[in-house]
Design brief:
The protein is of the alpha+beta class. Helix content is about 20%, strand content about 40%. A hairpin with a 5-residue loop joins strand 3 and strand 4 (about 50-55). The protein is flat. The two termini are about 15 Å apart.
Amino acid sequence: MKKFVFLAHGEMDRTPEFQEAHMKWWSSIQEHVVDSGNPLFNGRNVAKDGTVTELTANMTPSLGYSIVQAESIDDAIALLADCPMDMRVYEAMPM
């Protein structure tokens, strides 16, 4: 099994309908979760020249992360079929 990082981004919906959909989706992928992760906030972008800028909503910052295991990136993407949030998926390369 490979590890994949899910990065939530975009707008966070706080409605009861969203929260219900999120919990339903989250429950459905539990057997694949390696690290449930955390919400992310108070972000900064640090450029290679050392310039630091605050991440704002118009920059679509990451909102949280989780680490899952799957056989392939396609299998990891399939885990997001019922996810009510925008996600980015990255394979975590073993070091």
